[in-house]
């Protein structure tokens, strides 16, 4: 089966974990999900919190929206969709793992 593409991220119905890893492995994608875990935020606030360039931020948000992880509300703020909120639960588990493993920096993972 040939994978179709959403934005520049391949989407495969036969290998969903690969599709998810392709999407979430893109730089800033998980950070954006993490930033949106509590509140809907406007583009400018996401940019301020992350320091992402406007073009990359726009691209990542578009990919996350196309994948159904993020939504844009009528007030032009970005928020997590139902599946995005489910993903945050996984991120909380990763955070707990990192705390138990004593991981506090990238160098500790190397």
Global outline: globular
- CATH level 4 superfamily: Winged helix-like DNA-binding domain superfamily/Winged helix DNA-binding domain
Give me the strand/helix succession: EEHHEHHEEH
Q: What is the tally of beta strands? A: 5
Provide the CATH architecture: Orthogonal Bundle
CATH top level label: Mainly Alpha
Summing up helix and strand content along with how strands pair, one would put the structural category as alpha+beta
Low-confidence stretches: 1-6
Q: What is the topology, as strand order, of the major beta sheet? A: 3-5-4
* Helix fraction by DSSP (H/I, runs of at least 4): 40-55%
Q: What is the CATH topology assignment?
A: Arc Repressor Mutant, subunit A
Count of individual domains:
1
Summarize, please:
The strands form 2 sheets. A 3-stranded antiparallel beta sheet has the order 3-5-4.
Polypeptide structure, described:
The chain is an alpha+beta fold and 110 residues long. The chain has a single domain, classed as Winged helix-like DNA-binding domain superfamily/Winged helix DNA-binding domain (Arc Repressor Mutant, subunit A). It is 52% helix and 14% strand. The protein contains five helices and five strands; from the N terminus they run ββααβααββα. Strands 3-5-4 form a three-stranded antiparallel β-sheet. A hairpin with a 2-residue loop joins strand 1 and strand 2. The longest helix has 20 residues. The N terminus is likely disordered.
């Amino acid at each position: 089966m040939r994978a179709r593409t959403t934005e520049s991220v391949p989407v495969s119905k036969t290998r969903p974990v690969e599709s998810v890893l392709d999407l979430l492995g893109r730089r800033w994608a998980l950070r954006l999900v993490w930033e949106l875990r509590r509140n809907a935020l406007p583009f400018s606030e996401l940019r301020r919190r992350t320091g992402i360039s406007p073009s990359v931020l726009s691209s990542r948000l578009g990919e996350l929206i196309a994948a159904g992880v993020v939504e844009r509300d009528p007030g032009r703020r970005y928020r997590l969709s139902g599946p995005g909120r489910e993903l945050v639960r996984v991120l909380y588990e990763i955070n707990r793992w990192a705390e138990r493993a004593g991981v506090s920096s990238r160098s500790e993972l190397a």
